[in-house]
Design brief:
56% of the residues lie in helices and 11% in strands. With 123 residues, it is mainly alpha-helical.
Length: 123
């Protein structure tokens, strides 16, 4: 099992529902305007993602600042980084995003599923 999969398991119950404290950690990571901007940019980019230097350029962040925030988002499991030669290519983790959204909307609409899953749209 890969490091990312082990980290993701840390954030979710066996039954697939996110624990409140773990959801709070993910939301806290998104609560910083730079990390939220990075996450939204990666969600918009789709499953292909963007390399780290492009993220910094598009958001007007110095490389060290972008790297710090990318590392934080990776650590909590909201994004994935994949090394491609000298560069790291980042993409949003749509499964983690779906689970966070499911946690936030649990029992919405009297417990009936009413929201689309982002993982269905990413293909």
């Amino acid at each position: 099992m890969g490091e990312a999969a082990i980290a993701l398991q840390r954030y979710f119950h066996i039954i697939g529902r996110m624990e409140t404290l773990n959801a709070a950690e993910l939301l806290a990571a998104l609560g910083h305007e730079s990390r939220l901007a990075i996450f939204r940019l990666l969600v918009e980019a789709g499953p292909e993602g963007i390399n780290a230097s492009s993220i910094g350029e598009q958001l007007g962040m110095p490389p060290a600042t972008a790297s710090f925030h990318l590392s934080h988002l990776s650590r909590v499991g909201l994004i994935r980084g994949e090394r491609e030669s000298r560069f790291i290519h980042y993409s949003a983790d749509y499964e983690a995003m779906d689970k966070l959204i499911a946690f936030l909307t649990h029992n919405c609409c009297q417990g009936k599923p009413c929201l689309p899953s982002t993982s269905k749209r990413k293909k």
